Amino acid sequence: MILQNDETYFNYMRMTPDMFEYLLSKVGPLITKMETNLRKPIPPDTRLAMTIRYLASGDGLHSISLNYRIGRSTATLIIRETCEAIWDCLSPEILFTPSENGWRKIALEFEKRWNFPNCIGAIDGKHVAIICPKKAGSTYYNYKQFHSIVILALVSATYKFLIVDIGAQGRHSDGGIFKNSAMGQRFYNNDMYLPAPSAISARHQVPYVIVADEAFQLNSFTMRPYPSKNLTFCQRIFNYRLSRSRIVSENTFAIWVNRWRILQRPLSTSLETSDAIIKATVCLHNLLINTSYYCGDNYADKVSANGQIMEGEWRSTYRNTDNYSNISHCSNNYSKHAGEIRNTFMDYFMNEGKVPWQEQSIQRNLL
């Protein structure tokens, strides 16, 4: 396979030969087994190739074990160990470490690409379908009527996972998942090293915020749309500008799911292995997102010269996938201070921060 052209290899492994060799150099030492007098161990390159193929193809463990002529239980153990090794090796350098300068760089990307100043990420949660664990009852049964675990992710303007929380039970509410997660606790406790509020124009000074949909509560660090009933024109403009920025979260999850097709069907492994699979694919997504193979111009949503969103190829398959869905809506209760911050952004988008195409977009949606 490696002797064939890069495109053929990529279609099989979801990465180029050079990237596979790089990944092997990082993970290999952790998955190399000692040789004994009884039998020779499976080499690390085979272990890694087996795992990557399992994640990329979506084939069952029985099929993978037959292809590599090993027992199913052995294949299961190898895949779990390799996924854990990928997470242990890559997550410290692949995922974001909160710092003031780091947040500022992310905010500059959002302002440049999506015209939303002081935005430090788009947050979203997705249900990953699983086979009901033994004796779990309705613990993992969600409102969409399938069993799932939730991945909650803060993503960048360039479709990278910044911070993730993995493994919440599907039955939990969205607000509870965020508030009880380590990520959410750090935001609520002001422990994310966010920069101080800064001016986005001569008249407007706002804190750094994350953008979210209706599944999250409005507060001083999270902006969500205005409720969809009886909106003023200015509120519709704000909702459009926020949704335009938040689209990166949909793109990120869609690219992730479509590339690592093991996620397109219910995971039939143990909860520990399922968590390891999700963690490994998150790291692999970030590792490969900058390669020309991984995120082509036609795959992700693009922004045209006049600011319009041109839908990518991922939507044709992702919209029809029942295993993944947005988590449920949150109540619209919020503090007066949070409402003032949202109103400040709205005023900015109607004046100094206005983009030429926003009114046409709103009027077109009203037709």
Radius of gyration: 22 Å
Succession of helices and strands: HHHHHHEEEHHEEEEHHEEHHH
Characterize the overall form. elongated
Compute the number of helices: 13
Largest beta sheet: strand ordering:
3-2-1-6-7
| Major beta-sheet overview | 5 strands, mixed
**Portion in beta strands:** 5-15%
**Could you tell me how far the N terminus lies from the C terminus, measured between alpha carbons in angstroms?**
53 Å
Q: What's the total number of strands? A: 9
How much helix, percentage-wise, in residues? 40-55%
Average predicted confidence as pLDDT:
87
If you had to describe this structure to a student in words, what would you say it looks like?
Its cofactor is a divalent metal cation. One of its GO terms (molecular function) is hydrolase activity. InterPro entries: HARBI1-like (IPR045249), HARBI1_dom (IPR027806). This is Putative nuclease HARBI1. Keywords: Hydrolase, Metal-binding, Nuclease, Nucleus. It is a single chain. The chain has 367 residues and is an alpha/beta fold. It has 2 domains: 6-94, no CATH class; 100-366, no CATH class. It is 46% helix and 11% strand. The chain contains 13 helices and 9 strands. The chain has helices spanning 6-13, 17-31, 44-57, 61-67, 72-94, 100-114, 174-180, 182-188, 233-259, 271-288, 314-318, 336-350, 358-366, and strands spanning 119-129, 148-155, 161-169, 198-199, 205-206, 209-211, 222-223, 302-303, 309-310. The strands form 3 sheets. Strands 3-2-1-6-7 form a 5-stranded mixed sheet, sandwiched between helices. It has a two-stranded antiparallel sheet with strand order 4-5. Strands 8-9 form a two-stranded antiparallel ribbon. Helix 2 crosses helix 3, helix 3 (44-57) packs across helix 5 (72-94) and helix 9 packs across helix 12 (336-350). It is elongated. 40% of the residues are buried.
